[in-house]
Design a protein that fits this description.
One of its GO terms (molecular function) is hydrolase activity. This protein has one domain: HIT family, subunit A (2-Layer Sandwich). 31% of the residues lie in helices and 21% in strands. The chain has three helices and six strands, in the order αβββαβββα. A hairpin with a 3-residue loop joins β1 and β2. The longest helix is centred in the N-terminal third of the chain and has 21 residues.
Amino acid sequence: LGKMSMIKAVVYSSFIFNFLLIIGSNSKKKQGSACPFCCYPTENIIFQNDNIKVFNDRTPKATVHYLVCPKIHIESIKTLEPSDLPVLIEMKNVANQIVAEKFPNQKYRLGFHVPPFYSVKHLHLHLLVEPFYKFKKSKYTPYFGGLWYKDIDTVINELHDKAV
């Protein structure tokens, strides 16, 4: 590519990236009557308590692929507020408890897709026990500073920093 083509590519990709960020950001609602995760069938839930429910991902990308969701409807990591920190910490604790009980000594990941790179507008933590299925690992790796995926600790730290 020539110098001018590279500049155009950077400008266009920057425009597209910013457009996608605008589309995927900033709405939060506490009720989700039409949300598939708010209305998830009870018989398919593998764990739940007063605040959190866990179920299998319908299109698993690893040997074990669970979704850990708050029962309260939060749209995405972009709509989180500092007051949501306890929910995130409980999601992480539940995920770690499941791993400790069911998959001890196995490598796993905990993270979120960043809008607009997600399919259901309800906050859900991916709990993935490796190995990944063929060519799926990159979708759950925080490349480019978390452009499309962020691990749970990064999200918690960012929200904590926002609170201070």
